[in-house]
Write a structure and sequence with these properties.
339 residues; Rossmann fold; alpha/beta; six-stranded parallel sheet
């Protein structure tokens, strides 16, 4: 039997966090549709492999990560150079150079874009992340829809169907609302008759247990240790509501059309927030930009009090109960990869 010819490989670099991955789903699906005959490889931290595969836009994962959101080495790439390499990591020369070192036949990047482009991509600091990468691809003639961000329903059962998921953690202290305020929110939601569960990342057990103790939550309602992605995805997909800071879980709620309240501080929701629909509320106090990776809670985040967050959460829960805010009827457009 004659072996089938090997499909050309396309490498995308997006070696950042869960929120960054989910914000890039529209761009990844645009790439998948534009290059149906290519084997799409995504360079990403290995912990996000399951989440990347859930997008339906990726054929293979290239493990790649670096501390502090730096550009990782792509030294795990094997075989011939990529046919196409696409930089969705950033706009600097470091990410472009990491891809260029693999000698791809064609390289798409913000830094030094192809000189033959009639309208080269322009990096706009005031542009939403989803729109930024779709616009970048459009400059290269690749169509991508910023609204194409839904994930299909997960196969795993939810560990707490119908609960309000409260997630107090975030990668940096500047985006972490105080534990006592999350506890007050959880306590008041339970008093209103809503089941509440707490979640945290692998290194956030101390924070989650602190919030639980302050809120008098029983141990069975504390999901510590960092859930595997499939279980976390099911939890969010079948939750009544997600309340969190500006972190990956907020993007996962958007991906599953689960109502959410997201607390913003150093970064405006105009840049990283959810779509403007009736079942997502982004709380933010306008002011000068802060440091999203700072080591102290951002002053604008601290201006959001427990009353405001609780009111927002209860309003979404009431809307969902009355049927005023439809949520799970949207089409999930996952491009089919070739066999």
């Amino acid at each position: 039997m004659t072996a089938l010819p090997r499909r050309p490989r396309l490498l995308v670099l997006r070696a950042l966090g869960l929120g960054d991955l989910l914000a890039s789903v529209p761009a990844l699906r645009g790439i998948r549709r534009a290059f149906p005959g290519h084997h799409v490889v995504l360079a990403i931290p290995p912990a996000l492999a399951e989440a990347a595969q859930a997008t339906g836009a990726v054929d293979e994962i290239l493990p790649a990560e670096a501390p502090e959101r730096a550009v990782p080495a792509l030294d795990r790439w094997t075989g011939p150079p990529p046919d196409i390499a696409i930089d969705l990591h950033g706009n600097g020369p470091e990410s472009r150079d990491a891809l260029a070192a693999l000698a791809p036949r064609r390289l798409l990047a913000h830094a030094q874009p192809d000189p033959v482009l009639p309208r080269p991509p322009v990096w706009r600091p005031d542009q939403h992340e989803r729109e930024r990468w779709c616009g970048f691809l459009a400059a290269y003639g690749i169509a991508a829809d910023p609204a194409d961000l839904r994930l299909p329903p997960p196969d795993a059962p939810s560990p707490a169907p119908g609960a309000v998921v409260v997630h107090p953690g975030a990668q940096s202290a500047s985006r972490r609302w105080p534990a006592e305020r999350f506890a007050g929110l959880a306590r008041r939601l339970r008093a209103a008759g809503h089941p509440v569960v707490l979640t945290g990342g692998p290194a956030e057990d101390a924070l989650v247990l602190d919030v639980a103790a302050r809120a008098d939550l029983p141990e069975r309602d504390v999901l510590r240790g960092g859930l595997p992605f499939g279980e976390l995805s099911a939890l969010v997909a079948h939750a009544a509501l997600v309340v969190s800071g500006d972190t990956g879980l907020a993007h996962l709620a958007v991906a599953h059309a689960t109502p959410s309240v997201t607390l913003f501080g150093p970064v405006s929701p105009h840049l990283w927030g959810p779509p403007r629909t009736g079942h997502h509320l982004a709380l933010w106090k306008p002011g000068p930009p802060g440091d999203p990776h700072g080591d102290a809670p951002d002053p604008q985040l601290l201006r959001i009090d427990t009353d405001e967050a609780t009111t927002a959460a209860l309003s979404l829960l009431r809307s969902a109960r009355s049927g005023a805010s439809p949520r799970r009827g949207d089409e999930v457009r996952v491009p089919a990869a070739p066999p």
